[in-house]
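User: Modeling request: complex.
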Amino acid sequence: MSDSIIGAGPKRIDGQRKVTGEAPYAADHHPDNMAYGYGVFSTIASGTITGLDLEAARQSPGVIDIFHHNHFPELHRTPSSMAQGNKVEETRLPFEDNRVHYEGQFVALVVADTFDNARAAARKVGVSYQRDDAIANLDQGVKAHGTKPGSGNHERGDAEGNFDGAAHSIDVTYTTPVETHNPMEMHASVASWEGDRLSIFESSQGVVQQRGALSKIFGIPPSHIRVESPFIGSGFGSKLWMWPHAVAASVAARETGRPVQLVVPRPQMFTTTGHRPETRQRMRLATDDNGRLVSLRHESINTTSFTDQYVETCGSVTQSLYSCPNLTVSHETTRVNRGTPTSMRAPGAAPGLFALESAIDEMALAAGVDPLEFRLNNYADRDESQDLDFSSNHIREATEKAAEKFGWHDRNPEVGSMRDGHEIVGYGMAACNWEAIKRECEARVSLRADGTAYVTCATQDIGTGTYTIIAQTVSDITGLGLEKITVRLGDTSYPNGPISGGSWTTATTLPAVAAATREAIKELKGYATSEKGDFADVDNDSDSLVFENGQLTHDGQGVNYVDVLKGQKLASADGHAHTQGADDRYSYRSFGAHFVEVRWDPGISNLRVSRVVSAIDVGRVINSLTARNQVEGAIVMGLGMAHFEATDYDARNGRPVNNNYAEYVVPVHADQPPEVDVILLDYPDLEFNEFGARGIGEIGITGMAAAVANAVYHATGKRIRDLPIFKEKLM
Ligand code: MOS
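Assistant: Request completed. Predicted assembly structure:
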């Protein structure tokens, strides 16, 4: 079959359902007799619940039950293993005891006949606390109880011994704040039970993992649980793993005997559904006379909760992006009174490359080398951390292409020298990088007698275009038009699929879908070559029997597959496949570079990003439209990280103070650069999978904040090492 559909840019096949409001999201489900839950959340960040006054709430209209630590069934914890398929990030169960570990923790759950009645009653619940001193931020955590070793560390050569005598060196520390995912769609569960069978609609990036976790927590077999998440108003990582509200909703439904809907209010989406933790990263780099790196140390500390150890692996990219014989990467955590952190788009790499790519800029300047030249001189040609070749790496070409298109070579390196009217223009650049991962996956494909194909896989489409690229894959092999292909995702009753995360959905699901399609064709050939078939004389595995454009063809004679099935009164030819994860022959990674132009108007203290050119090498591009969309979206999110995003906590008591859409600032349309130019290199990585695709969801955000910071330095001479780069910091 021609490969034209792979790499083309068809629009999302689910797009119309989404924009017309037809696509059901979790909280759109209203099963008969459904009741509504509303949480009561702790108003202290640390302490003990000493009393609950429930009288007024009980008498409030429509109240069915109120759950809390003295009225909640005994459950079990999940081992929280991704490999076992039951991972959660916050392992403490809701209402497990009377302890409060963070502000905005569930302390009670009111269930009532309507949403308004539940909310009104929840506000009447009185909670008294014994308040302990809260550890409100990273500095306080380190001071109070130091740090704990994390994971993902790496050491090679002698970084310390090669630092002091080096020709040029820097020793600088960067910090990044808590960032909160803020997907538009709220976290929500609609749970119902039939006997000992649980069914739950959830806004989830991983229905199979949620089923596994619920199975462990309730002690019932996975086959008795159905998790559905066919449409998601994004997640950015906050919906990869189940959070306490889903357990609370499931218990409430079981105990009240009614379906229960529970939506996490926006303020508590800052507390009980994860966040990107605060980091402090010390970077020590040194070069020889020629500007070659001789020593590199990246030491990172991130905040975690009192209930769980979450490591933000800031040095994950540092290990392999640059060639350096003497290198250490270390991660540590410190406990604070916040909810448990979790993966947020490009976990580790997003804050890590802010530090690394800012430090590379500082190192280049200290060594007297142009930052672009410095990178080209120091990029690694193989993965020195694993002692492996890269499967495919075009970072030099990406960097040079983007530099050319951006006009980097016209840059006057002198700080503040490029003026345009009353604005000072700054140019900055940074590399971007992300790992390429492929997991095991199952899929099922049916070629149906009505001329359509039907595909199922228990992965999800989080808005990225998974429905569409799966349909493209089936279309590529069968020749059926996209309009004839139905794709069903986000339901654990389908064959096991991966979480929608880690940028691994494309590389993981497409091989399984392709294999299942070929299995279906094989079954079809079996029918065609059977006694009653159209090709009864042909061997069923004969190479001369080919499936093309919906036809089975042999020796110039073609029969439409629909006729093959109808001739034998068959509904469909079906294929199921189970494909495996990546091997370890190579280091599989994606690469790229961002170039950013900022404009600083000192007269009115206005700072804006006016232009971005990014070149990205993610292997083969499956859908040029959705791929570009993801990089553009990640660039804008990276600008948010650079300029705006920070969840602020009151240092006196650990309370998040801007826990809403008004005060937690993300970029709006007016903040978008007038020009965003994304170059997709499109070199198939055929060592990685048959499609040569490595995944594209996360790489675009990595390096963006550093590229902005480097441009800001070029414009203003101010080196901002603590995100976000508020313009107040430039005044
Ligand atoms: Mo991504 S942080 O793996 O949703």
